Amino acid sequence: MTIAEGIWQQIFNFDNYGELLALVRNSLIAGAALGLVGGLVGVFVIMRDLPFAVHGISELSFAGASAALLLGVNIVGGSIVGSLIAAGAIGLLGSRARDRNSVIGTLMPFGLGLGVLFLALYKGRAANKFGILTGQIVAVDTPQMSWLLGTSAVVLVALAVMWRPLAFASADPEVAEARGVPVRALSFAFMLVLGLAVALSVQIVGALLVLTLVVTPAAAAARVTASPVLLPVLSVLFAVVSIEGGILLALGSSIPISPYVTTISFSIYLVCRLVGAYRTRQWGAARTAPELG
Amino acid sequence: MSAVPRARENRTEDRDARAAVISLRGAALSYGERVLWQDLDLDIQAGEFLAVLGPNGSGKTSFVRALLGQRRLSAGTLTVLGSPPRKGSRHIGYVPQQATLSAQAMLRARDLVRFGIDGHGFGPRLRLRAVHRRVDEVLEAVGATAYADVPVGLLSGGERQRVRVGQALATDPRILLCDEPLLSLDLHHQRAVTELVDARRRSHATAVVFVTHEINPVLGLVDRVLYLARGGFRVGTPDEVLNSESLSRLYGTQVDVIRVRGRITVVGVPDEVAEPPHHAELPHEVRP
Question: Which of A107, A235, B28, B114 has the maximal Cβ count within 10 Å?
Answer without folding.
Answer: A235
